[in-house]
Amino acid sequence: MPRLFTSILLTTLFFSATSFAADITLTTSDKFSLKGDYYQGKTVKQNSTNHAVLMLHQCNYNRTMYNNIGEQLAQRGIHALSIDFRGFGESVNNIFNVKNLRKLPKEERNKAWSNMSSHWPDDVQLAFDYLTEKVGDQGKVGIIGASCGGSQAITLAEKENISAIGFFSSSQSDKNIARYNKVLATKPTLIIASQDDGRTFTSAGQLFITAKHANSKMISYKGSKHGYPLLDSDKQLAQTIVAWFVNELNN
């Protein structure tokens, strides 16, 4: 699929007193509608709003897991965008819908999942292009991927100039760790995982050992909570993630 920033439809440009999110639709080159929440960075003191964070959800949730983080980033002057992966949340149609996919027999389900997820790198690229339009050529963009979103973060960061990267309860294969080590280990990296979360925690440790930037950080939790439940149980975690990205993007 060619990289084509086909069109952007702002379906809602309404900012309430309690939310900074604007509902947006990104239209892909194959005419699929990706839904997202865009948080416009507020001007803070003398800081320019030319920094942004792309937020990728885990595969048992949707873009709303980043509501609090997106709003906090906007308050700190950083644009933020969370999208529903194709097949999740509001990014669904008759062909791509994870709820329908999960009802299929195993062989059909695996084939349908492979087809659906094969579009994600280009979909994520489209979201990244949207943010770069906001921050300009001199802007900085960070990315955080929860669970399955972490692999998509690596794929994007291999091609684009990502200034900071986060892995949130994101299990990585040995192949992905090697990819990270080859081209991304010098980037500031935030790694979050629970100690009893199996391969997620094991690979988190491997990523952290590989990370070479002085500001790379690993946060570990007792128990087995995965992704969003950590935000729910530790009310300070969202603030910690935001503060880390603010610091790295402003360096």
From TrEMBL:
Pfam families: Hydrolase_4. The keyword Signal applies. Keywords: Signal. Residues 1-21 form the signal peptide. Residues 50-161 form the Serine aminopeptidase S33 domain. This is Serine aminopeptidase S33 domain-containing protein. It comes from Colwellia psychrerythraea (Vibrio psychroerythus).
